[in-house]
Amino acid sequence: MFPYQRGRRMRMSDGVRSLMRENHLRVDDLMMPIFVADDMADKQPIASMPGYYRHTLETLEKEIIQASELGIKAVNLYAKVADDLKDNMGTEALNAEGLMQTTVRKIKEWNPDLLVFTDVALDPYSTYGHDGVVQDGEIVNDETVDILAQMALSHAQAGADFVAPSDMMDGRVLAIREILENNRFGNVGIMSYTAKYASSFYGPFRDALDSAPGFGDKKSYQMDYANALEALREAEQDMYEGADILMVKPGMPYLDILYRVKEFAKMPVAVYQVSGEYAMLKAAGEKGWIDYEKCMLESLYAFKRAGADIINTYFAMEVAGLLKDA
Ligand code: PBG
After folding, report:
1. Is the pTM of this model over 0.90?
2. Among all residues, which ones are annotated catalytic?
3. 234 CB under 6 A from ligand 1?
4. N or C: which end of the chain has fewer CB within 10 A?
């Protein structure tokens, strides 16, 4: 009741604002996505993601050491494989000496404490750029799930702490949980891309991995962006199938989904601030149209406010630097 309640009283100084602050961004909240490739001599810039690179194993070592020094505790790996290794079944994904598996082992040599999450999906390995096996123009579910489970096991054998299925096939969390349990990898976690939308904000990522779908789109497996309750059904399913972390993706345009999933599931929830979100902020910043650093921080606080426990963001390293200096 006015004037007994004056909201501004608690906004008058830095001191009182900091007492009032409900959410805090810490380096512990961050997860850093990493692109690795083995068909190039040096790290390569990604045109649509200024400041972000595809790394070779050599350049990655420096990056990992730097990230660790800045206090980053988790990385999320994506491997870009050469075209001649791609096929419809994603065979290369199961190669124990493949790029993903080798990278996991290397990172564990450089810093055994760094948590390694691995992407489990067929699209970077698929001639069709789809997240599943293609039969007669259809992305088939169950055949794909069998391969994803094998892929997850091979990542666990290489030393991954968490496997992260990003494919949106039905039943893959259960299949992965079972294969891990049956092979004495019960402590390897699953971060499930639970509510992953068929979004146009993934464009720059597909440039980075050269993984754009060769035909059609991903709407038969990724979710319709008009839907919200469907995300809760996916969350319920993943919880019962044995996921440890639920992820919502993209981030900024989906804060409502993040909030609802967190409220509903009472589980650790991650959010993926995707490549298109990164690209937009970078581009507007380069043009001088926004104060880039402030907008970046604001976007990350929005995730905290909406309930994110983990923020997977291409800003991880930059923000870790800012938090360190603060
Ligand atoms: C595919 C995958 C995609 C992203 C992560 N995993 C793209 C897609 O679904 O086509 C996008 C991430 C980003 O845009 O940053 N398994």
Report:
1. yes
2. 196, 249
3. no
4. N
